[in-house]
Amino acid sequence: MCIVKTCGIPLDGSGAPGKGPLDWERLYAEFTANVTDGDCATLCRRGPDGLGACCDGARLTLIVFRDELAWARQRTRGWRGGRPRTPAERKGVAAWADHVAWARCLRPRQCDRPYRSLTCRLFPLEPHLDAAGGFLGLTYVYEAARLCPLIGRQLSVRQAFVDQSAAVWRQILATYPEERACYVRASRQLRSRFARHGRAIRLWRSTDGFVF
Predict the structure, then answer these.
(1) Which residues sit opposite 140 in a β-bridge?
(2) Which of 202, 168, 185 lies closest to 22 in space, CA to CA?
């Protein structure tokens, strides 16, 4: 999301107010599919006792919905709000929209999986939108290609994960217009970059074929 992206969401005043908070209890209960078969962390773990890239706060920033953070803190001790540690991080956070927040995973080696953030669950796919904001499919978070061994590789992404991710994105984009605006921009930039290099963008679509 643009919360999966480490850039966050530019607070530029675009977009109308959202439709209200998401039903976090329901989203967490209905989004349980793993991205691929087996433990993909074995592909990017640093050393036998290391963490997978997407669980390692030193390699990937955890950015979450502010309402989600408040909801999760009442149910798990696994993660909490955090603060930027460097001038560059502080400058970046100052430009984020109000509905996102910085977070830190406190016990990544003892992950409280039923309460993993949406950021953790959705990675490494994100929505790809057309110029009007229509949903074209899910694609890789290509900015994280050097971290995640699934991105750009010929590894199977489970259709159940695609279907559940698309259902979550349907609700996110309806609730937060800033997210849709962010992904319209990001998708346009990705198409332009890939066109210059003659590359094709990998897309996955949900089995219901729903367009949003």
Answers:
(1) 125
(2) 168
In a domain, 211, yes or no: no
Taking alpha carbons only, the member of 55, 102, 47 closest to residue 80 is 102
Taking only the tens place, the pLDDT of each residue in 175-207 is: 999 899 999 999 999 999 999 999 999 999 999
Asked if residue 89 belongs to a domain, the reply is yes
For residue 16, being part of any structural domain is answered with no
Using CA atoms, how far residue 12 sits from 1, 9, 149, 158, 182, in Å, is: 17, 9, 34, 36, 10
Tokens, residue 189: 């930039």
Place of tokens 């499919």: 137
Provide the residue range defining the domain that includes 34.
24-196
pLDDT digits (tens, 9 = 90+) for 100-116: 888 888 888 888 989 99
Look up the pTM and report it. Answer: 0.84
Q: How many domains does the chain have?
A: 1
CB atoms within 10 A of CB 174: 14
Tell whether 130 is covered by a domain: yes
- Check residue 98 and give its pLDDT: 81
